[in-house]
Amino acid sequence: MIVVSSCLAGLEVRYNGTHSLDETIRQLVNENKAVTICPELLGGFTTPREPAEIIGGDGYDVLDGNAKVVEKSGRDVTELYIKGAHAALEKARKLQASTVVLKENSPSCGSTMIYNGEFKGKKIVGNGVTSALLKRNGIQVLNEEQFVETMK
Ligand code: SF4
C-alpha cells in the first residue's frame, strides 16, 4: 500500500484550508491504491490553523529534543508535531506501506526541504518531523515530484 499526504490527494487540510492537489496521487487514492494521512490532524490540530515552522534545526533535531516547532504567533507546538509523527508511523506500519509520499516543504511532511523558522518564506535542506521519524524507522519517504518521476 502507498500512503500519501492528504493535501496531495486534494483534501483541504492545509493550515490555511487549501489543498496541494497532485492529480496522479488523487487518482491512486480514488483507485484504492493509496491511503491518505495528515500528520498535523493526527497530532490534534484542526483546519484552519496557524502556520508553523521548525526553529533550530530540522525534524531529526526536533525528535532529539534539539529544535522546536513554533506557530507564527509564538506558541510551542513541538509535542503535537511529535504526536502526529508517531501516529503517522503507526498508520504506515499497520498498512505495511511500501512507499510514503509526503508534501514537500511542510514542517511535518517535507522530506528534502523545509522553511527555516523565520516565517519569511526561506527554505533550507532538511526533513519535517514526520518524514524524519519515518526515515529513522526504515520507511522510504518520497516527495510528490520524486514519486511522480517513479511513475513514468
Ligand atoms: Fe499536507 Fe502534511 Fe501539512 Fe497535512 S501535515 S496538510 S498532509 S503537508
From TrEMBL:
Which InterPro entries is this protein grouped with? 2-thiour_desulf (IPR007553)
Q: Write down what this protein is called.
A: Uncharacterized protein YbbK (DUF523 family)
What organism does the UniProt record list as the source?
Answer: Metabacillus niabensis
